[in-house]
Amino acid sequence: MQPILSIKNLSKTYASGLSALAEVDLDIARGEIFALLGPNGAGKSTLINIICGIVTPSTGTVTVDGHDIQRDYRAARAMIGLVPQELTTDAFETVRKTVSFSRGLFGLPKNPDHIERVLRDLSLWEKRDSRMMQLSGGMKRRVLIAKALAHEPRVLFLDEPTAGVDVELRQDMWRLVRRLREQGVTVILTTHYIEEAEEMADRVGVIRRGRIILVEEKAELMRKLGRKQLTLHLQTQLSELPESLAERGLELTGGGRELVYTYDSQGERTGITRLLNDLASSGIAFSDLQTRQSSLEDIFVDLVRERA
């Protein structure tokens, strides 16, 4: 199936000489939730701004459902909804008029039923006649999302959508994103809250210094790069590891009362049985043990550190 969003050899160098993007290739499938992760300054916002027609690329092409973002701008842009990081709205306008106006910008006829549905989905219906200046920061964030959905886009960009908002809105956002996917909307998410990507994404992309360094299905990424840690709580404090255990890759923590063993959970041999035998041979007894699976955040941090 043809991807709904196709990015080929995309680069952006500003007049100052700053290279914000370098030879980015990326295809996004129709109806998927794609999480784009990267540290500050990695190029996430530049990439989104180019796709949305806000910034002109230096080289490369972007097509949205077959429409070139430069040659066929109006058709391509009409396919896209964008929820920016900044809270920019008309302070004196009402919620309903603000959202309805966004629909009109795309030349679409009025559709009060659709506007009502969007406002209800975002728990904004009771605030429909309130002026923007009367809303809390979280409610204003909801209005930005409603504006992005007013023209019924097929691709929705959420650029740090829950930055600085409460847990309730974050949970509402997750539920809304899942409903949108069920309706066939493609959602592209950038976030500092990596648990959002872990919770919602089908695929994960990592961008660093303007380059995509990894694109992988989330489950496969966790399988291939995920690690487990076995923590042994020792009965007797150790000041250092015995020589017989020096090559076992152990870390002595907790003031000498814990041994941490990191291993590949997908490997044929974890080495745990041999480790426990070695500990017994060395006279080291433990009172308890626990395991921990690495999270997407652990994997992300490791990837960025390795490519530094």
From TrEMBL:
<dbReference type="GO" id="GO:0005524">
    <property type="term" value="F:ATP binding"/>
</dbReference>
<keyword id="KW-0547">Nucleotide-binding</keyword>
<keyword id="KW-0813">Transport</keyword>
<dbReference type="GO" id="GO:0016887">
    <property type="term" value="F:ATP hydrolysis activity"/>
</dbReference>
<protein>
    <submittedName>
        <fullName>Putative ABC transporter ATP-binding protein YbhF</fullName>
    </submittedName>
</protein>
<keyword id="KW-0067">ATP-binding</keyword>
<dbReference type="Pfam" id="PF00005">
    <property type="entry name" value="ABC_tran"/>
</dbReference>
<dbReference type="InterPro" id="IPR017871">
    <property type="entry name" value="ABC_transporter-like_CS"/>
</dbReference>
<dbReference type="InterPro" id="IPR050763">
    <property type="entry name" value="ABC_transporter_ATP-binding"/>
</dbReference>
<dbReference type="InterPro" id="IPR027417">
    <property type="entry name" value="P-loop_NTPase"/>
</dbReference>
<comment type="similarity">
    <text>Belongs to the ABC transporter superfamily.</text>
</comment>
<dbReference type="InterPro" id="IPR003593">
    <property type="entry name" value="AAA+_ATPase"/>
</dbReference>
<feature type="domain" description="ABC transporter">
    <location>
        <begin position="5"/>
        <end position="234"/>
    </location>
</feature>
<dbReference type="InterPro" id="IPR003439">
    <property type="entry name" value="ABC_transporter-like_ATP-bd"/>
</dbReference>
